[in-house]
Fold this sequence. Notes:
Two copies of one chain form a homodimer.
Chain A: H1 2-9, H2 13-23, E1 26-27, H3 28-34, H4 40-52, E2 56-61, E3 67-72, H5 74-101
Antiparallel strand pairs in A: 1-3, 2-3
Chain A binds a DNA duplex through helix 3 and helix 4.
Amino acid sequence: MDQLLRLLMGPWTTYILWVLENQGTLRFGELKRTIPGISSRMLTERLRGLETAQIVFRDYRPTIPPEVRYGLTERGQELGTVLASLNLLAQRWFLEKKLSNH
Amino acid sequence: MDQLLRLLMGPWTTYILWVLENQGTLRFGELKRTIPGISSRMLTERLRGLETAQIVFRDYRPTIPPEVRYGLTERGQELGTVLASLNLLAQRWFLEKKLSNH
DNA sequence: TAAAGTAGGTACTTTAAGGTAACCAATATG
DNA sequence: CATATTGGTTACCTTAAAGTACCTACTTTA
């Protein structure tokens, strides 16, 4: 689990997963444009990590110019549901904080 | 959620939670001895973060020498169940990897 | 003929995180 | 009188991660 958390932790990672879950599979450039401020270098690195963990798939088509699509694998979907429940917790706690600050 | 993940990610953090869940509340020194290799500096820092997020409580008794106990709050318990399901995923994937390496 | 779009790779610099070690107060103990 | 105990704090150094900027090949479009 430590490995898994270590993968998720890096900046951008959960953002990328979030986008892929909501928008479906996207091309590299689309993904980059959807995540303001991320550099190609970071996006590539994160996607490689997620691909290695088989959370994201990479579909490369050697056309000119090349087309590469990224999307969630089955594991990615499973992870999504767990992250959703974690998100639920975080949201509730955040809400409770706001209420107590009142 | 990003904040929450960022808190959990640091080295030692999940280890600390794991120990507190299994062993119950512990003193600073006990905790430190239970987690081989961690420095006081890191342990303090992680505990402060978890305390701020109200995942762990801190019970300070100004005796001499002082006694400080750490344990999981209600939030800590809730988080524990979610982390357990994340752990389950990680374990299953790890097993699948071993099987495919065969 | 120059620019734009495609999916990155590479080199360099900067920043933040983590590790190490020394130090503290106050008392009990030998 | 020196030492150990407790729960840290502080200063310092090192390393790894992230950011910045520029580069590629090939084609289409203006």
